[in-house]
From TrEMBL:
PROSITE patterns: THAUMATIN_1, THAUMATIN_2. This is Thaumatin-like protein 1. It comes from the Eukaryota. SUPFAM superfamilies: Osmotin, thaumatin-like protein (SSF49870).
Length: 295
């Protein structure tokens, strides 16, 4: 079993293999039941505030018993998932009922108007824990993604798996306070940040950093999009991120004719200051491989 110190505030998911995950910290574990592979997810709220987890099953797979519930500080809930299940978990925050009884949340809202999301996904920005059980080669796949932005710290830790890549992943640092103003979602004007938009969502077509291979005309968007698939946020990751961010930022500071990043020529249509701040947040939370934390 992996041993590590949890941060003070996060949602924790456990599943029985066993998965540990965190929305604020999610702990998930995966186990075998009567010769049939079964999985249960235990979600624990380690945040110092109430979180309303949401659940969305992938199209074409069996659903699980709930699609939304409430977890107060320190509370937990265990959910069983059918074989070959796939889907995502996320945390909703700052939720309330209006005078007409409509339920809504400031971050991660699924638009159902009720506590249960009933097949609806999270409105960005929201931290996502994504799972595919019994996937290719009979393996379980999972990640914590910030492609749709960030709203709460999250961690996933597997228990009992036999694969070499059964290690934990997540983003357990609070990015809301450090989020650039261009990406920050605030509870009220001048108030605290409650979520951080994805760089891709905030920097749209006319303001997107594009890249193209030298001596070709074909433009690619992967350079701006790929770094937003962030899966782990710990201090040790900064050393690895530096290998990527240093040449990229250096390229962005050069003249347009000299902005080369490896085999790519980097272009930008927005100010250097804004784009560099976006990339600084985007690249802080990258996990460079499942074996990274054991190295």
């Amino acid at each position: 079993m992996l041993k590590f110190a949890y941060p003070p505030n996060f949602l924790l998911f456990t599943a029985q293999i066993t998965f540990l995950a965190a929305v604020c910290a999610l702990l998930l574990s995966h186990s075998f039941i009567s010769g049939v592979q079964g999985t249960s997810f235990t979600i624990v709220n380690k945040c110092n505030y109430v979180v309303w987890p949401g659940v969305l099953s992938n199209a074409g797979v069996s659903t699980i018993s709930t699609t939304g519930f409430t977890l107060r500080r320190g509370e937990s809930k265990t959910i069983s998932a059918p074989a070959s299940w796939g889907g995502r978990f996320w945390g909703r925050t700052h939720c309330s009922l209006d005078s007409a009884g409509k339920f809504s949340c400031l971050t991660g809202d699924c638009g159902s108007g009720k506590l249960e999301c009933s097949g609806n996904g999270a409105a960005p920005p929201a931290t996502l824990a994504e799972f595919t059980l019994d996937g290719a080669g009979g393996l379980d796949f999972f990640d914590v993604s910030l492609v749709d932005g960030y709203n709460v710290p999250m961690l996933v830790v597997p228990h009992g798996g036999t694969g070499r890549n059964c290690t934990y992943t997540g983003c357990v640092v609070d990015l809301n306070d450090s989020c650039p103003s261009e990406l920050k979602v605030m509870k009220r004007e001048g108030g605290d940040g409650v979520a951080c938009k994805s760089a891709v969502a905030a920097v749209r077509m006319g303001h997107r950093t594009l890249a193209r291979r030298h001596r070709t005309r074909r433009c690619l968007r992967e350079l701006a999009h790929a770094p937003t698939a962030m899966r782990m946020m710990i201090k040790a990751a900064h050393l690895h991120v530096a290998k990527l961010i240093t040449p990229l930022l250096s390229a962005l500071r050069r003249t347009p004719e000299e902005r080369y990043f490896g085999k790519f020529l980097v272009h930008q249509s927005d100010s250097d200051t804004k784009m560099l701040r976006v990339f600084a947040v985007t690249l802080r939370c990258i996990n460079f491989g499942w074996g990274f934390f054991n190295g």
